[in-house]
Specification:
2 strands; 52% helix; 84 residues
Length: 84
């Protein structure tokens, strides 16, 4: 199995440990490693900040899409359970 790495553009925190995450709509759960959890939190946090701000900056949207693409590529199953 290839070791996952966060991309250079990633500005979030790299966690030391993974955890189980629950889909906020369906309630389904998925176990994420530390790298996946770091990206997941970046995606969810970015979404929340943009929704609260009432607007989407072009660069923010680009990074959010990059994060979603990274997740689909690195763990498609978790993406389908948690983010699709």
């Amino acid at each position: 199995m290839k070791k996952q790495e966060l991309p250079k553009w990633f500005r979030g925190e790299l966690y030391e440990k993974g955890d189980t995450v629950r889909n906020r709509f369906s309630g389904d759960k998925y176990e994420l490693n530390n790298v996946e959890l770091s990206m997941y939190d970046f995606i969810i946090g970015s979404t929340m900040v943009m929704e609260m701000a009432g607007g989407w900056q072009h660069t923010d949207v680009q990074e959010l899409r990059k994060g979603l693409d990274w997740f689909r590529k690195n763990n498609a199953e978790a993406y389908m359970v948690l983010l699709d």
